[in-house]
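One-letter codes give the sequence; the fold follows as tokens. An example follows:
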Amino acid sequence: MAGKLTREQIQNMYSDPEVQDRILRIDSLANFLTACIISENYDVPPRLAGAIKLSTAGAGLVGRVQSNANPRNECTLSAFLQVSWNELLIDPRETNVEVLEKVISDEIKKERILYPYIYGRGLYDKAFAELRDNNDTLTHKDTMTLLAGTPQGVFQLHDYVTGPWGLARSRAIRYCPPSVWAPLYHCDDLSCTRLHSVLLETGTSKISKVRTKMREVLSRQDSAEGEWDEFLRNQISDRVNPFSWRHPAGIPNLLGDVFSLGELRTILHDLLNSTEGKLRESLVTLGHPVREVDKFTEGLNEAQVLQLILLCRDEEIIDSLDSLILSGKIFIPPAEVRKSPRETRGAGYFSLVPECTSMGVRFRGDSSLALLRSRHLISNLFDLSNPAQRQRLEWLIRGTDGSSFQEQLDQFVSGGSLDAALGSLIFDSGENLESAQRFVGIGVRARECLSNEDSLRRAITWRLGIDGPSESDVLVDFRQYGARLRELAMRTHTYAPSDQADIRAVASNFFVKLEGLLQEYLKLATWALLRDHYATSGFIYSPEEAVGFAVQELSRGQVDVQYAESGKWTLYPMIRGFDILAERLQGLQSSDETRRSLTDYPKVLRSPSPYTFLFKHVYPYLDLDPVSRNRIRAMLAAASAKLRAGKVDEIRNALQHTNPKFPTQDEVLGAINAAETVLAEAEEAGFLPVVSRLRESQTDGYGRRTLTLGTANGKTLRLVRPSSYYLTGLPVTSEPQIVFRSSVYENSSEVLRLSIREDSEYTKRWSGFPSRRGTSRKSGNERLES
């Protein structure tokens, strides 16, 4: 057997950087052709085969395979697709890479070779509507039917980007390989959150038959396969740093999945005007010069826009996204976290996944990476081999415990607030600030949107993975108006006209805030306790959808109170609403109608299991322990009683209108006290849309973790992991969420938790996702004991 070529030997044989790049390009083009879909009658274009120059080893292989049944062009292309065995099958110097690029580009544009457009909802929804079953493999006929009318898939290898524009050259190198696996369906197991991929079958053409024959011949050769994969991986690592904190492989997923078509057009429009003409030059190369940007972008579909955006450098794309988000041109609600719902794998050594919030773009990994990334930043800010810089750092961390400089530095970054510690180092000098901005990827235009030192510090530390208490207390304005109104009410017992005017002015704002908060309380409680989160769209709170849901639930059997579908509710129906909801909950009983059907239980729990299933009823309220149910019901009834006793509605009306009988001091104070008490109880129980985030995570030697979720104003909840409860569907602890601290599941220490989905382009894009074929939505009398 011939000696197997090692990576080092291959490196020595092909040490010329230009030849190495040509080999890498040949391998990329071969991968594009290997992972495409073709028809059964596909013929290899003569120009494609003619551009390929075989090596001695490749010519010998083709000679053994070529026959009347295996034509020369197909054999040549098969050798090209194989690229190498122990030796290269292709001559990298003589192969005409430029012609190959042109022919492949034409084949893509003519749709003689196809790629699935895997981003967004298009292919997923088409599969749900047109395919009868959820299968893990599609026949070639069904594959072609599915892809018909859909855009060409957008993938990138090296600087080649495929898509509707053919094969285009990017100014950035990324490795996001094409695949014949497409994410197409969710199974009927409601507990399964995985988006299942389906193998798309290419046609059994002449080239596929020749490839099969060639592999058979290679498998019988007397030589082992050389270490070409290792050689190519090294070449890729030289071009894309696997340790990058902003690994580019995740950028196509972010762009393709979390932005609507309108937003993608906005991004492209911005890049056409902000890349110093470079993107416009790329379009000229593609034969599509841009004269009027608005008119050009309006007519493009998602795939066309995405392919063009990917022709830009990573830093250009990120700066565009950041500046558009921070300036409000792309609106992202404060609690929204945009990331691909397809659960894509993280990129690079640190498995980073890009995400967008109202603060811009960051590349998120495991929470423990925040400390490593912060240490890396410090090493960029201070060169410890430079005595002056080391001395400066020693001075900045003075007073920190430690017997040596290194111990002091370790304690400085791990002993207290990481956010505060880094802030003191970042803003030590203008040079440090510039270095920190470059390190986390804040571009020039994004920097212009960060108007003050605090916002800039938060932007930097947030991109490092440090989540501070960015949300404000939703009660803060209400409390301030309440304190001011109380102060005015207590100023005197007899109100002169000027006193009345002052009280009315502040009371107007106070009661507006009160009405808004009471409505949030009522609709959130109704949604949380009566909606079947497990079997619908997940454990998510949608303020917009909750209005209609609350109207439907609270209006049942009511003749004396009405709730406007518009959501404009006055105090009286809201005060009555707490009684109505308490009565509705009182009437719910665990029965065959309210118990979840066995068919909707997680499949993994239909056999004896160490896990306990929490969501046994279609109404979440019935899954709570008796103490929680009684406490919640009593709290709701008390809210209505306290607001009535405090004459909140009457006092509001009296202060809103010019009324000859102005409320007394006791009446005004009584209304304030009642309102503040009801909302304080709601906040404590978790029935106001106050965001909690992961604040602390501790792990012991047995792998037991204690997680602390907390709000900006200090309301906390501790969870223990691993859990013996089957928690599928509940928000992951790393995401912002509403924590209902009073709503404890029966026989558990877990509480009801909901993530927040505010109305945005992102939520519209993924509304109704996932779609499950054949799932039960009716309750039944089948039971599963845990």
Confidence is low (pLDDT under 50) at residues 776-786. The longest strand covers residues 166-176.
